[in-house]
Amino acid sequence: MLGPVLLAAARSDSIRRVVAAAPVTRPVVERFVAGERLDESMAAVRQLAARGMEVTLDHLGEDITDPAEALRNRDAYLQLAGALKELGLGAKAEMSVKLSAFGQALSGGHDLALRNVTPVVEAAAEAGTTVTLDMEDHTTVDSTLAILGALRERFPQTGAVLQSYLFRTEDDCRALSGEGSRVRLVKGAYKEPATVAFQDKQEVDRAYVRCLKILMAGQGYPMVGSHDPRMVAIAQELAHRNGRKPADFEFQMLFGIREAEQQRLVEEGHRMRVYIPYGTDWYGYFMRRLAERPANLAFFLRSLATRG
């Protein structure tokens, strides 16, 4: 029951101010966010790479209100691509972007987001890496997939994210399961209405498995975004059933969550990519992480009680 409340709080400026001002918040946020500065994110990349993992980097900056902010987010990603190129980390690190950070929700946002994200994708290619377009709430799906199609004309390695709790996602999986297509499948972390999305956890899980079957049987490259042990085991079984080797798919998990499981999968020979967010605009991301799993919320509340 707390999940919807936390997701609503993620968009509340007044709650944002209270949470950001709480002395306990910063050390707890550091569990899920690599830092506010680019150099802190690069340190996390190197540490994880030394443990045999790959990463995808997300500069936090969604829910912007004017085109100038979109340009600042574009420039932050260009700086990130430059750092990856300079440090020779392109083979280990890709980039994840939310198109809302590039102006998608503003007036003329579709064209604005495409115009702003294109140089980022170009810079990523020059750095020897690529970009995956994160998926946001259901109102953005058509625009995001259209931008994906435009980018893939020049950069076919550009990745997509699909959310199993949306009714439409099985069809989207079929459309994006072709050769060379990179798709991260997640359950979904936004509050969606019952008209477009499954509300029951078991229904979301069943939809995730149906979507995973489509991707594993396709010609693309599935990226299994889940911390659920059952989904991890099902993904391994489906990969085996479809003749996929460890290099033919990967697991993805969030920075700071189930770290022992991440290491276990690496030691079993699987590809593991850790999603590393960084930047000053961490609030919305942090609240969604609390909403996703009771264990995350319990961790935060224990910290409040201990430090209180």
Largest sheet: 8 strands, parallel, barrel
The low-confidence parts are none
Strand-residue proportion: 5-15%
The shape, in one word, is globular
Roughly how many Å is the radius of gyration?
A: 18 Å
Helix content: 40-55%
Individual helix count: 13
Count of β-strands: 8
**What is the rounded distance between the termini?**
25 Å
Mean pLDDT: 89
Structural class: alpha/beta
| Elements, N to C (H/E) | HHHHEHEHEHEHEHEHEHEHH
Strand line-up across the major sheet: 1-2-3-4-5-6-7-8
Task: Give a description of the structure.
The chain is α/β, with parallel strands linked by helices. 52% of the residues lie in helices and 14% in strands. The protein has 13 helices and eight strands. The chain has an eight-stranded parallel barrel, surrounded by seven helices. Helix 5 (67-87) links the parallel strand 1 (54-59) and strand 2 (93-98). Helix 5 runs parallel beside helix 6. 44% of the residues are buried. The model has no long low-confidence stretch (mean pLDDT 89).
